[in-house]
């Protein structure tokens, strides 16, 4: 509410989420309308005048089809896509003004939305992601021979592949039977801590490769993991860590999920799990973390739990957080030890070692000390030490 005006942020009529400001597309089609895309997959175009909604509809349709005009013109309403619109949109302030007038200025803009049905949307999304991955240098998993003999997934087979560290075998099995994802999720609930971390590691690598061709099933898995993480009883069973590993495995596709991990930071027991997950994402895409309010993590450098302090240092090193230099310097003599899982094994270092290493990194100098691999039986991990 602003004076007598009823002002609202623009939203997606399909999912209800707030949407970003429309922008000029990289590939121009009609060359007239800014466009955008909701996280639910709906595409939209803005007609600032409200007098050319037909043109905006075509722009949104073509944008939804990744600028593929042939596909756009072949779509059938209702059967292939749904449409929606938000009226009285003000392009200047990026707001919906329900009275249609803002400070004496008429507001007549229209946002026109197009949402493809899921089967067609997956085809178009796969093509769009493939283009993005190619441009970013991300490897795309080769397609499998359609005439191959397919294997059926089972809990035993999946567990054997995980125990053997056979990521290639897991990816092959995923292409044969996507139920492999469900079996991997169930394996997270093992009482064997070392196996659970192997499952987390396998999920990150295998899902990253599989999602380059089939992001839909992996996205569904992420939603299931978030639902499990919302159940506090599941907090100690690797769900938060698995989410981080999967996002890191294909951050160009699943990076938008990163911010949702922050909702678990209010639970002290899950703070080290979230920081580990964010640090794992930061190793691949530090920009995703810097786009969050990352400065809030500086306070965890003074946390009474050494595990939290150490994992926070791991996170801040990966985003080159020079803003926290003074707090990091205060930890250089901290002797408390930290353990965590990295690249298929448990690592150990003191908080002081990690602090010295990040300072050396910030100075573009070699790390002060190397991390030490732990012998056969690991001490408690972040998940077990809460």
Descriptive account of the structure:
There is one protein chain. The protein has helices spanning 53-64, 69-74, 118-136, 155-163, 167-176, 180-187, 193-211, 215-230, 239-249, 251-254, 271-284, 286-290, 306-318, 325-329, 351-362; strands spanning 7-8, 35-37, 43-47, 81-90, 95-97, 101-102, 105-106, 109-116, 337-342, 345-350, 372-373. The chain is an alpha+beta fold. The protein has a domain at 7-135. The strands form 3 sheets. The protein has a 6-stranded antiparallel sheet with strand order 1-5-4-8-3-2. A 3-stranded antiparallel sheet has the order 9-10-11. Helix 6 (180-187) runs antiparallel to helix 7 and helix 8 packs antiparallel against helix 9. The longest helix is centred in the first third of the chain and has 19 residues, at 118-136. It is globular and about 70 Å long.
Can you give me a brief rundown of this structure?
With 386 residues, the chain is of the alpha+beta class. It has a domain at 7-135. The protein has helices at 53-64, 69-74, 118-136, 155-163, 167-176, 180-187, 193-211, 215-230, 239-249, 251-254, 271-284, 286-290, 306-318, 325-329, 351-362, and strands at 7-8, 35-37, 43-47, 81-90, 95-97, 101-102, 105-106, 109-116, 337-342, 345-350, 372-373.
SSE sequence, one letter per element: EEEHHEEEEEHHHHHHHHHHHHEEHE
Shape: globular
Number of strands: 11
Rg over CA atoms:
24 Å
Could you list the spans in which at least 5 consecutive residues all have pLDDT below 50?
365-386
Quote the average pLDDT. 85
> Which structural class matches the secondary elements?
alpha+beta
């Amino acid at each position: 509410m602003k004076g007598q005006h009823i002002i609202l942020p623009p939203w997606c009529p399909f999912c209800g989420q707030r949407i970003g400001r429309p922008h000029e597309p990289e590939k121009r089609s009609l060359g007239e309308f800014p466009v955008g895309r909701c996280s639910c997959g709906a595409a939209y175009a803005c007609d600032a005048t409200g007098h050319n909604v037909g043109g905006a509809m075509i722009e949104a349709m073509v944008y939804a089809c990744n600028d593929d005009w042939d596909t756009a013109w072949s779509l059938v309403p209702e059967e292939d896509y749904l449409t929606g619109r938000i009226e009285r949109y003000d392009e200047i302030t990026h707001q919906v003004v329900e009275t249609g007038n803002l400070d004496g200025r008429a507001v007549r803009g229209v946002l026109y939305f197009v949402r493809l049905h899921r089967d067609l949307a997956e085809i178009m999304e796969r093509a769009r992601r493939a283009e993005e991955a190619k441009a970013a240098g991300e490897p795309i998993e080769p397609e499998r021979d359609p005439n191959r003999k397919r294997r059926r997934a089972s809990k035993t087979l999946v567990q054997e592949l995980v125990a053997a560290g056979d990521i290639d075998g897991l990816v092959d099995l995923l292409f044969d039977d996507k139920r492999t994802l469900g079996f991997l999720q169930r394996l997270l609930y093992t009482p064997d801590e070392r196996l659970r971390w192997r499952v987390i590691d396998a999920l990150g690598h295998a899902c990253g490769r599989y999602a380059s061709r089939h992001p839909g099933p992996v996205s569904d898995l992420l939603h299931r993991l978030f639902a499990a993480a919302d159940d506090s009883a599941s907090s100690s069973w690797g769900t938060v860590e698995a989410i981080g590993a999967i996002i890191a495995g294909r951050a160009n596709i699943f990076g938008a999920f990163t911010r949702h991990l922050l909702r678990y930071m209010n639970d002290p027991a899950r703070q080290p799990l979230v920081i580990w997950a964010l640090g794992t994402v930061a190793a691949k895409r530090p920009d995703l973390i810097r786009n969050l309010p990352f400065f809030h993590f500086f306070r965890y450098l003074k946390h009474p739990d050494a595990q939290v302090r150490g994992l926070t240092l791991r996170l801040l090193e990966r985003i080159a957080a020079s803003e926290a230099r003074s707090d990091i310097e205060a930890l250089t003599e901290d002797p408390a030890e930290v353990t965590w899982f990295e690249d298929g094994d448990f690592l150990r270092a003191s908080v002081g070692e990690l602090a010295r290493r990040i300072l050396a990194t910030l100075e573009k100098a070699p790390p002060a000390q190397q991390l030490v691999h732990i012998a056969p039986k690991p001490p408690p991990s972040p998940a077990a030490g809460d």
